[in-house]
Write a structure and sequence with these properties.
6-stranded antiparallel β-sheet; binds 6-O-phosphono-alpha-D-glucopyranose; 26 strands; alpha/beta
Length: about 600
């Protein structure tokens, strides 16, 4: 949600920061802008409504934008409509300071009144512009950009990742964070700031993840990190382990398609090094829990948003089924605003691809305030949720750029199956089950590949959905949350209304919608409730509903109930979601692509929702 990139060094700044925000465009894409200090020491700002390509098209000639220091921003509107005036960077009355900002300044109305009473002219509807006027005010007093930013931030309530430049300090970038990520990159004789490492890893993999209330002052040959009270901080330099290819589309038309096709590898990366054949169990070292602590767990809570919440629901089915530990799953946005009961011996898990989702983070703080131990399941090393947790598990899915989450989902589910087996083996789960699970999990990447090999067939079936206005996804048991996820994928990127339902619940409402115009996607693998779901499909067929079934290879019976069948390989029930979701991802992708939509950047959505 919004992206920041800043550069200071020896190279021409404009191409570097424009390229950088393009890599972050998946985070927000209603307007963009940049500010540089040009070769004459003047602040130059350019902003544009729409995608970054519009900004690029309208930039002045390179000779007019020459400089080696600048900041850029891509926006997802929160305060104020997407307009050029509301786009970042924002500047102050004398026009010498520019600020880009992610997050929300909660007390901006009061600050705005105060600034206006002191004759500041506020031009936009944004909360961000308040910041730059505050900095102007304190810079006038202190003549020091870092001190001015420190003073200004002390008055601010809310969250921010910011980068600030000023033509009065033409060799300096000041950046700070609170509750919104800000990363400082160290290159060779050059430095970067960004809200997301994918913007800068083609330049450097050496980074410092700023902590809340830290502020970095960067000059061409020197940097210093301090607190808002100006205490010097000795920060740790980390090495980003992402490969540059993970942020390139390669031969694929869209990131989403590339990420769907990466799943044989990303799922393997999630379990690699975590299977312990000798014990017929698994190891999750990042949990930092002893065997005794794992055995003392009486129940679990799992809190998440969006696709991660669907993964959590699958986790509930699996953990309860094989570890016999009760699990409650909750939306983070609900958890944070009620008075949740966290009984003793109940660790709370927070699942988040980005590790930065505002609601999930707030829920984590709530659980901790209630004395619970918090564990993160995230994809992003050094993310706020990873740092604020008492322990956790990285899913190691690599950069996920498509707004609709795919590979992160299957990696999250993989981790939850590992957790289920770990908790189970600490209790009464038989070693034979643990051994069978390990053997079967190792086959899953190749089974995912087998489904991906059917992509052309799935594309043909997707053509039958293109003109639909609605779709119903049905599943039972562990495949009910898969139905929810399939429906979410379709609506997110193709804008077709879709709902996921437990198949048997259909007769309590949605059946009223069934006619020849209502496609039904049924997840009907060969398992203990197969016959039940066949009955549900008969109910659909009797009302002329068109059925696409996801069934186990070799199942001939399903054909008579379905207009189309997509086969998935046989696997144990615990692992079925890792296979059954793949055709649903591909169906959604092809429908959106056939409709000519912007698959990677669907309207109104953002990859990482760092505001409420
Ligand atoms: C946004 C994304 C979804 C994602 C959700 C939760 O809505 O568009 O794809 O599932 O946030 O994100 P998280 O990073 O916490 O998993």
């Amino acid at each position: 949600m919004c992206g920041i990139v800043g550069y200071i060094g020896h190279r021409k700044v404009t191409p570097i920061i424009v390229e950088g925000i393009k890599r972050l465009e998946y985070r927000g894409y209603d307007s963009s802008g940049l500010a540089i200090i040009d070769k004459n020491g003047e602040l130059k700002i350019h902003k544009k409504l729409g995608k970054i390509i519009e900004l690029e098209r309208t930039l002045p000639a390179p000779s007019e934008l020459e400089g080696t220091l600048g900041i850029a921003h891509t926006r997802w509107a929160t305060h104020g409509k997407p307009t050029e005036v509301n786009a970042h960077p924002h500047t102050c009355c004398h026009g010498k300071i520019a600020v880009v900002h992610n997050g929300i300044i909660e007390n901006y109305r009061n600050l705005r009144k105060k600034l206006e009473s002191e004759n500041h002219t506020i031009k936009s509807e944004t909360d961000t512009e308040i910041l730059v006027h505050l900095i102007e005010h304190f810079e006038h007093e202190t003549k020091d950009l870092t001190a001015a930013v420190q003073q200004a931030l002390k008055l601010v309530e809310g969250t921010y990742g910011i980068a600030v430049i000023s033509s009065d300090h033409p060799r300096k970038i000041v950046a700070a964070r609170k509750g919104s990520p800000l990363i400082f990159g160290i290159g060779r004789d050059e430095f970067f700031v960004t809200s997301d490492v994918s913007a800068i890893i083609i330049h450097t993999k050496r980074v410092i993840y700023l902590k809340d209330d830290e502020i970095v002052t960067i000059e061409p040959d020197h940097f210093e990190i301090t607190t808002l009270d100006n205490k010097v901080v000795k920060a740790k330099i980390s090495e980003v382990d992402w490969d540059v290819s993970s942020i390139e589309k390669g031969e694929f038309k869209h990131f989403m398609l590339k990420e769907i096709f990466e799943q044989p590898v990303s799922v393997e990366n999630a379990f690699r090094g975590r299977l312990v054949s000798e014990l017929s169990s698994v190891r999750l070292g990042g949990l930092n829990m002893t065997g005794e602590e794992l055995r003392s767990i009486e129940r679990l809570q799992i809190v998440a948003c969006g696709t991660s919440w669907h993964a959590a629901l699958i986790g509930k089915y699996i953990i309860e089924n094989i570890a016999r530990v009760p699990v409650e799953v909750e939306y983070a946005s609900e958890y944070r605003y009620r008075n949740p009961i966290v009984p003793p011996h109940t660790p709370v898990f927070f699942i988040s691809q980005s590790g930065e989702t505002a609601d999930t983070l707030a829920a984590l703080y709530k659980a901790k305030a209630k004395g619970a131990l918090a564990y993160g399941i995230t994809n992003t090393i050094g993310s706020t949720i990873a740092r604020e947790s008492d322990g956790g598990v990285y899913i190691h899915a690599g950069a996920e750029i498509g707004v609709a989450s795919t590979k992160a989902f299957t990696s999250q589910v993989t981790i939850l199956t590992l957790l289920a087996v770990l908790l189970g083996r600490m209790r009464n789960l038989a070693p034979t089950f643990g051994a069978a699970f390990i053997k079967e999990l190792q086959k899953i990447p190749q089974k995912i590949q087998q489904i991906l090999d059917d992509n052309d067939k799935i594309l043909e079936i997707a053509k039958t959905l293109v003109a639909s206005k609605n779709a119903l996804y049905l599943g039972r048991g562990v495949n009910f949350p898969v139905a929810l996820e399939g429906a979410l994928k379709l609506k997110e990127i193709s804008y077709i209304h879709a709902e996921g339902y437990p198949a048997a619940e259909m007769k309590h409402g949605p059946i009223a919608l069934i006619d020849e115009n209502m496609p039904v996607v049924a997840i009907a693998p060969d398992d203990v409730i197969y016959d039940k779901i066949i009955s549900n499909l008969q109910e659909v067929k009797a009302r002329n509903g068109r059925i696409i079934s996801i069934a186990t290879e070799g199942d001939k019976r399903i054909i008579e109930h379905s207009e189309n069948v997509i086969y998935i390989p046989k696997t144990m029930q615990t692992l079925q979601p890792l296979l059954s979701v793949i055709p649903l991802q591909l169906l959604a992708y092809h429908v959106a692509n056939l409709r000519g939509l912007d698959v990677d950047q669907p309207r109104n959505l953002a990859k990482s929702v760092t505001v409420e």
